[in-house]
Amino acid sequence: MPIETPTLTPTETTVSYTYILPIQPSKLAGFAEGGHPYPATDLFAPVGTKFVAVTNGVVDFVSYEDKWDPSVNDMSVACGLCVAIIGDDGVRNYGSHLSAIASGIKPRARVEAEQLPGLVGNTGNARTTLPHVHAVRSQHANNDNSHLKCASQECNIT
Ligand SMILES: [Zn+2]
Asked: For the whole model, what pTM was predicted?
């Protein structure tokens, strides 16, 4: 009796994500020359401009208070007010120096793309710079510091 060899056909699954520039309206976003020696970008915009979720995800970390003191220069609190969101795509999006955190933004809260986590500002060690968001995108799977206030590259701010 012949033995049948099963044929496996992979199931095609298409997953798509919606992405949006975290500064809205995007025409208010500005970029400067220079940058950081690691994957981060400063997105300049007036204080109070909307800083929104890049894609759907879950809030990972929030700093509600600006605890940075220039005389101490503790880089672990250099972000001022900041938010980190782990997107459904597995990428962690972090933004710091915010002037306000929106109500309902707290760890484990679900956010949708374009939802407002906060407003652009210059808190933390950006208090003497132009208002901007220090934005960092990192692979969550590689970021085992997610339980900390911020990963080292996020803390090395301005
Ligand atoms: Zn920066």
From this structure: 0.81
